[in-house]
Design goal:
The complex is a heterodimer of chains A (298) and B (228). With 298 residues, chain A is α+β, with helices and mostly antiparallel strands. In chain A, 27% of the residues lie in helices and 31% in strands. Chain A has 2 domains: 2-44 and 127-297, Glutamine Phosphoribosylpyrophosphate, subunit 1, domain 1, CATH 3.60.20; 46-117, Alpha-Beta Plaits (2-Layer Sandwich), CATH 3.30.70.260. Chain A has 8 helices and 15 strands. In chain A, strands 7-2-8-1-13-12-14 form a 7-stranded antiparallel sheet, with helices on one face. Chain A has a 4-stranded antiparallel sheet with strand order 4-5-3-6, with no helix packed on it. In chain A, strands 9-10-11-15 form a 4-stranded antiparallel sheet. The radius of gyration of chain A is 18 Å and the shape is globular. The two termini of chain A are 31 Å apart. In chain B, 10% of the residues lie in helices and 23% in strands. In chain B, strand 1, helix 1 and strand 2 (29-33) form a beta-alpha-beta unit. The longest helix of chain B has 13 residues, at 185-197. Chain B is elongated, with a radius of gyration of 18 Å. Chains A and B meet through loops of A and loops of B.
């Protein structure tokens, strides 16, 4: 099992409430995935600035003096916003590669959870409501967000094994299911220059989409290609800077339900995840078809 | 009428109350409010009572039902009326996957669409779907009737035994050993009764085609002796 929730706002006036809405949705899916939880929130981008979400096993030690060191070594004015085991380092977009290289060399204990103009990613081992509280999901604003509660099957219960997985700028993916050909695809992608942090099957799916989009496919086309190339059980919910996509494998044994109104599109592993959304009684509610791609873009 | 509000009572309290009702129950009309996608609503009831659920439910609503009439004024999650023995379950909205799975008796009516694996391994239940059904429906279905007023998805009736399938619309593909069969008078009569019991008056039995087992897969065939 696993639980997925996703919310893509069409009405900007709901943006201040995004975190609160997603946090309620995530809370309903605790019993589907009590091992660990995570979420990605797409906030308003700031021109010329890029956010790097970092995670540390020893945040007190690792985050102390980090901003000053980055400012000095790279010659920029970075911002560091700490939240428990995570911190968002905001830097000028043209220095992202330099900062990442420096972090890699000088702060190897820090893990990069995600990079992008809008995305922030938080994930940890623990009961989902506790994880959401720890990172104050409720107070986060943005245009769309994806959350996941994990019951691990394919790899260990660790922070890095939690979802969402982010393998490209402003991209993230969550997964309910298990892939059977991920080792082969991983080897193929490594040959093509993709890098992997874990042995996890879901990371391969995320990297596969990143690789497809690098080849010039849009989100919908990239999702479509998973149906032919990935073998196993999957419901994927995917975020990009301005997009939100859903695909189910052809067998479609993992549960999924969607709702759409003029104000939002929402995904839940079960209807329970959607019941608290505004005007849910008037929403179009449906089960996404197998082997069919759904995506929305702003 | 007894009303149980699931924002005030939990699912176990609801089901325990329903299980207390026996053959001579004087509380024969029940209403369940605010199910909000809850699992196992009105599971395992064994009494001639009627239960009206006001809203959408999650997994296994009406599972193992005996005698009771359960109506869901909303949609149902996976496994609605799973292993039903008798009685009637009506879903006013859509049903998710494996509706009526392994059911041994009674009538399941889905007024919207049903998704994949509807009637999988059914063993005597009758299922009437006003809308469409998804792929792999009636997989290994043993007996009973599946009536579909709309279209059927891929691999209908794969590895079918003796359940009778009636589809009014298109069938995307037939599963292994499932074939179209003649509609004989007894099938016409059975279908007429099922449509009537499901409250469907605007659709005629002669608009349907019948599908059933070719009986090549589940019989021992001497030509395959080497394979065993």
């Amino acid at each position: 099992m696993c639980g997925i929730v996703g919310l893509f706002l069409k009405n900007n006036t709901l943006e201040p409430k995004l975190g609160e809405m997603l946090s309620v949705m995530l809370g309903t899916m605790c019993d589907r995935g009590p091992d660990s939880a995570g979420f990605a929130v797409y906030g308003t981008p700031e021109k010329g600035r890029t956010k790097i979400t970092l995670q540390s096993g020893d945040p007190e030690k690792d985050f102390a003096g980090l901003k000053q060191a980055v400012d000095k070594e790279i010659g920029i004015k970075a911002e560091l916003k700490e939240k428990s085991t995570h911190a968002v380092l905001t830097v000028s977009s043209d220095k992202v590669d330099a900062v990442r290289t420096w972090l890699n060399e000088h702060r190897p204990s820090l893990r990069v959870m995600g990079v992008g103009d809008s995305i922030e990613i938080y994930k940890e081992v623990g009961y989902p409501t506790e994880v959401a509280k720890r990172f104050d999901l409720k107070s986060m604003k943005g245009s769309h967000a994806i959350g996941h509660t994990r019951m691990a099957t394919e790899s260990a219960v660790t922070t890095l094994g939690a979802h969402p997985f982010s393998t490209g700028s402003d991209q993230c993916l969550v997964h309910n299911g298990s892939l059977s050909n991920h080792n082969g695809i991983r080897r193929q992608l490594i040959k093509d220059g993709m890098r992997f942090e874990t042995e996890n099957d879901t990371e391969v799916a995320a990297a596969y989409l990143t690789w497809r989009m690098k080849q010039g496919l849009n989100l919908g086309e990239a999702l479509n290609s998973t149906i032919d190339d990935l073998d196993g059980f999957f419901n994927f919910v995917v975020g990009t800077k301005d997009g939100f996509g859903v695909v189910r494998d052809p067998i479609a044994c993992k549960p999924a339900v969607m709702a759409e109104t003029d104000d939002y599109v929402a995904f839940g592993s079960e209807y329970r995840a959607l019941v608290n959304l505004p005007d849910i009684n008037k929403a179009r509610v449906w089960e996404p078809e197998p082997a069919t791609v759904y995506f929305w873009e702003r | 009428m007894r009303t149980i509000d699931l924002t005030k009572s939990n699912i176990r309290e609801l089901n325990e109350e329903l299980h207390r009702q026996g053959g001579g129950a004087n509380e024969d009309s029940w209403e369940v409010l605010n199910p909000r996608g809850a699992h196992a609503v009105a599971v395992g009831v064994d009494a001639p009572i009627s239960i009206s659920v006001k809203g959408s439910v999650g997994y296994y609503c009406g599972g193992m039902n005996k005698q009771a009439q359960v109506t869901v004024h909303g949609s149902a999650g996976p496994g609605v009326a799973e292993n039903m023995m008798s009685g009637k379950v009506v879903i006013k909205g859509d049903a998710s996957q494996y509706a009526g799975a392994t059911g041994r008796g009674g009538l399941l009516v889905i007024e919207g669409n049903a998704s994949s694996r509807c009637g999988i391994s059914m063993k005597g239940i009758d299922i009437v779907v006003k809308g469409n059904i998804g792929h792999m429906s009636a997989f290994m279905a043993q007996s009973g009737h599946l009536v579909v007023c709309g279209d059927a998805g891929d691999a209908l009736g794969d590895s079918l035994y003796e359940a009778k399938l009636f589809v009014r619309g298109s069938v995307k593909s037939l599963g292994a050993d499932c074939v179209e069969k003649d509609m004989r008078p007894e099938h016409h009569a059975a279908l007429t009764k099922l449509l009537k019991d499901a409250g469907i008056t605007d659709i005629k039995p002669d608009e349907f085609k019948r599908y059933g087992s070719a009986r090549k897969l589940y019989n021992f065939n001497i030509d395959n002796a080497d394979a065993y």
